[in-house]
Backbone:
C-alpha cells in the first residue's frame, strides 16, 4: 500500500508538521508519567485504527520498560487488573476524548474529578494535549494512508 500523499513534500503541511512535532516533544517532556503517556497514545491509536502509531507507541513503551502483558491488555483495560487507578482514569479520559463523535458521554465532571485525584493541573493539561495530539497524528496517518507500520525503531523520533 502506498501513501496517498507525502505531507512532508508540501509546503503547507511541511510547515504545520514541524509545529506538530514540536508540540509532541513538549507533551512527551511533560510531568505526565512516561508509562501513562505511552499507554494513552497507544489506546487512542488503537481506537483510531492508526497502525503507524500503534507500532510506534508499542515499541517505545517496551523500550521504556513497559511489560508485554500490560501492552497486550490496553485494548481491554476495563477488564484487566494490571493497570493502576491513575492509569485507568487516564485511559478512560483518552477514550472518551477520542470517541466524542461516537455518541460517547464525553469527559463528564465525574471522570474529570477521578482523573484530578491522580494528576495535578500540569499533568492534566499534558493529558488533554496528548489525547488531542494523538487524534491529530492518527488522522493524518489514516487519511493519507501512511504505510510504514512495522518499520518503526524505538526512539526513532527522539
Residues:
Amino acid at each position: 500500500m502506498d501513501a496517498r500523499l507525502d505531507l512532508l513534500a508540501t509546503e503547507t503541511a511541511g510547515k504545520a508538521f514541524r509545529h506538530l512535532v514540536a508540540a509532541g516533544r513538549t507533551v512527551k517532556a511533560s510531568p505526565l508519567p512516561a508509562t501513562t503517556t505511552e499507554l494513552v497514545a497507544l489506546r487512542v491509536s488503537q481506537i483510531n485504527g492508526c497502525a503507524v502509531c500503534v507500532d510506534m507507541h508499542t515499541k517505545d513503551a517496551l523500550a521504556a520498560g513497559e511489560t508485554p502483558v500490560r501492552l497486550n491488555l490496553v485494548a481491554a483495560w476495563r477488564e484487566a487488573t494490571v493497570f493502576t487507578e491513575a492509569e485507568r482514569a487516564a485511559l478512560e479520559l483518552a477514550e472518551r476524548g477520542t470517541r466524542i463523535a461516537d455518541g460517547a458521554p464525553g469527559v463528564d465532571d465525574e471522570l474529570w474529578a477521578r482523573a484530578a485525584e491522580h494528576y495535578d493541573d500540569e499533568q492534566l493539561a499534558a493529558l488533554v494535549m496528548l489525547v488531542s495530539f494523538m487524534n491529530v497524528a492518527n488522522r493524518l496517518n489514516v487519511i493519507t494512508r501512511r504505510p510504514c507500520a512495522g518499520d518503526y525503531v524505538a526512539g526513532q523520533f527522539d
In short: Residues 35 and 66 are 7 Å apart (CA to CA). The radius of gyration is 15 Å. The mean pLDDT is 90. The domain at 7-144 is CATH 1.20.1290.10 (AhpD-like).
